[in-house]
Amino acid sequence: MNLKEIEPIFHRAFTQSFSRKKLFFVFPIIALCGLLIVFCRALAANAGDWLRMSLAFLPVFLCSSVLLAIGILLVRIYYHEVKQLSLSYRKIIKESWNLMVGITYLSVPMIMIYILLWIVLGLFYLLQAVPAIGHWLGVVFSFGPFLLVLGSIFLSLLNIFTLFFVTPAVALKSTTRLEMVQELLKQIKDNLFSSIALFFIGFFPVLLATFFLSLAAFLSDSNSLEATHSFSIALQWFFIMLPFSALLTPFIIFFFNFSAESFVFLQRKAKNLS
Description:
The protein is mostly helical and 274 residues long. Helix content is 87%, strand content 0%. The protein has ten helices and no strands. The chain has helices spanning 3-15, 20-44, 49-83, 89-104, 107-128, 134-140, 143-173, 178-190, 192-223, 230-273. Helix 2 packs across helix 10 (230-273), helix 3 (49-83) packs antiparallel against helix 5 and helix 8 (178-190) packs across helix 9. The protein is globular and about 70 Å long.
């Protein structure tokens, strides 16, 4: 894999990310995910540390279920655009509906694992509440929350990794069978460096855009009037979330466009090696 091979697929994926029709189609979905994050953040505003920790990660896994489904549509739309085939959003949605429902179940195991981590984290908070010795127990077992939070971060990254590789495989092969997953894992294992490099190339624009948008949201929030009630906090974040989601939408589209390109690239590379 070299720059000359990556540049054309990057350019094609990027230029196809700013279609007006596609932007208007995807924006409500991203806004829905943003609304879920706002809701969880508003709940966490006056919550305890344990609940605040769970509400920090839970929207990631819930939103990924939605993004897995919308990713099927985006990959198939992109395939039609690249191949210059006749494109009907209604027809693609109708033909993809069963796959969209089926692929959302892939998020269930990760959500269950995260809930288990959250419950175990709650046990460490209970230890700290033990009279007289709770503080010392919290000090001795401080490695526990560290490992559990680290596990939650790793699980979140694995979730994004799944979005990048599983979505195009399901969309282009029209199946969610175990054999397809095993074949995909073998493909990633055989081309580990290329797979990781393609993932970071596809995810970096989303990460960079999220960083600058979050920085702008944080600075504007710190300079605005102080909100004291959960409802006013949620309302304030809701109106920030709308332009935030609109500006992030083309980068989410690029992420799935480039994931489709990467899947085809790795498939072609595997055939050349065999």
